[in-house]
């Protein structure tokens, strides 16, 4: 029963997050009729350097690509009528296009992933230790291994000349512990098998 309830909770969390993401996308994305470029997605940017006694300036205006020139973007014109052509030749105009809808979708996906990772981290830190219980079969093996380590450290010779022997003894001790663990695992598996059959 606890596993079934955990699986149900995980399923509802995943389904809830996907429904929330779809709802947010539907709210932000414009309908197909409005999907044509909005005024904030296109602009013409003209960079005009200093000219005579006029300081340099950057002009932005939402115009179509064919109207992206100094005459349509630079308003008000800072020079008198006879200097307009010379001033406009110095200005560099660029047509810029972007998709705010795509930017919004990418930001929503990024925030959703970060939020899901934060929720998962909170679950691992807070809930998982409460749910997970120590295994009754592996706990005695860990205790026995710790006791063996303490005994081998206490019985190990301390002279510096016997360093090679202590390394060999440690390897042999680890091998013996591993063999005992395998035997204990076999016993528990066979005991379980007998109890089940």
UniProtKB/TrEMBL annotation:
UniProt xrefs under InterPro entries: TMEM9/TMEM9B
Transmembrane regions listed in the UniProt entry: 105-127
Span of the signal peptide: 1-35
Keyword Transmembrane helix among UniProt keywords: yes
Chief site of localization: membrane
GO cellular component: lysosomal membrane
Protein name: TMEM9 protein
Region (Disordered): 142-161
Keywords associated with the record: Membrane, Signal, Transmembrane, Transmembrane helix
Family: Belongs to the TMEM9 family.
PANTHER family registered for this protein in UniProt: PROTON-TRANSPORTING V-TYPE ATPASE COMPLEX ASSEMBLY REGULATOR TMEM9, TRANSMEMBRANE PROTEIN 9 FAMILY MEMBER
Keyword Lyase: no
Subcellular location: Membrane
């Amino acid at each position: 029963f606890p596993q079934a309830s955990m699986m149900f909770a995980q399923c509802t969390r995943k389904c809830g997050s996907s429904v929330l993401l779809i709802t947010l996308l539907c709210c932000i994305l414009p309908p197909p009729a409005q999907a044509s470029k909005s005024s904030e997605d296109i602009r013409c940017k003209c960079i005009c350097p200093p000219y005579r006694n006029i300081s340099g300036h950057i002009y932005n205006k939402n115009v179509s690509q064919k109207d992206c020139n100094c005459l349509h973007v630079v308003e008000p014109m800072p020079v008198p009528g006879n200097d307009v052509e010379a001033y406009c030749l110095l200005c560099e105009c660029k047509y810029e296009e972007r998709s705010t809808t795509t930017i919004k979708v990418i930001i929503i996906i990024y925030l959703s992933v970060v939020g899901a990772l934060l929720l998962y981290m909170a679950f691992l830190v807070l809930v998982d230790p409460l749910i997970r219980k120590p295994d009754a079969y592996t706990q005695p093996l860990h205790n026995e291994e710790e006791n063996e380590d303490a005994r081998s450290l206490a019985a190990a010779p301390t002279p510096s000349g016997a360093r090679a022997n202590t390394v060999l003894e440690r390897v042999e001790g680890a091998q013996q512990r591993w063999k005992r663990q395998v035997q204990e695992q076999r016993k528990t598996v066979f005991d379980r098998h007998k109890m089940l059959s």
